[in-house]
Design brief:
5 helices, 76% helix
Length: 155
C-alpha cells in the first residue's frame, strides 16, 4: 500500500472515531449528568418547552435512571474499543475489520437504548405535548435551514 494511502486511512479512521465519541457522549438531561441521548427525538430543551407537569418530570427522570447503567456500560465499552483501535493505528498490529465491527455493534446497541428511552418518554407525554414538540422541532429545522441558506448563498 503506498504511503499516502496509509495517511488517508488513518485520517478516515480518526474522523470516524471522533464522530462516534461525540455521538456516544450524548446530551445533558434531567439531573445534569450526560445520559447518552445524543440528538435524540426528545431533547431536554424541547421537553421543557412543552410544559411538563411535576409528575411527568419525575416519570422522565425515572426513565433515565432505569436506563443509565446500560448507557454507561455501553459508552464505556465503546470508549475502550475506540481506544484500542487508536492504539492499533500506531502499533505494529494494524486494525482489522473486526475492530471496526465491534465499534459498529456498540454504536447500534447505544442507538437501540436511546430509542427505548425516547419511546418511554413519548409514552409520558400527552397528545397536545407531542403536537407542540413536533411544532417546535419543525421550527428548529426551519431555522437551521435558514441559517444554511444565509451562510451558503447559491448565487
Amino acid at each position: 500500500m503506498p504511503k499516502h494511502w496509509k495517511v488517508v486511512a488513518v485520517v478516515a479512521v480518526a474522523t470516524l472515531l471522533s464522530g462516534t465519541t461525540a455521538f456516544a457522549q450524548g446530551w445533558s438531561g434531567p439531573g445534569g449528568p450526560r445520559y447518552g441521548m445524543g440528538g435524540g427525538a426528545f431533547g431536554w430543551r424541547i421537553l421543557r418547552a412543552v410544559g411538563l407537569s411535576d409528575d411527568q418530570k419525575a416519570q422522565i427522570r425515572q426513565v433515565y435512571m432505569q436506563h443509565r447503567p446500560q448507557l454507561q456500560a455501553l459508552r464505556n465499552q465503546l470508549m475502550t474499543a475506540q481506544g484500542q483501535l487508536r492504539d492499533k493505528l500506531y502499533s505494529t498490529t494494524p486494525p482489522t475489520a473486526a475492530d471496526l465491527g465491534s465499534i459498529g455493534q456498540l454504536r447500534d446497541q447505544l442507538a437501540q437504548e436511546r430509542l427505548a428511552i425516547a419511546l418511554a418518554i413519548r409514552n409520558v407525554l400527552t397528545a397536545d405535548q407531542l403536537a407542540k414538540a413536533a411544532q417546535i422541532r419543525q421550527q428548529l429545522k426551519d431555522l437551521r435551514q435558514q441559517q444554511r441558506n444565509l451562510l451558503n448563498p447559491t448565487s
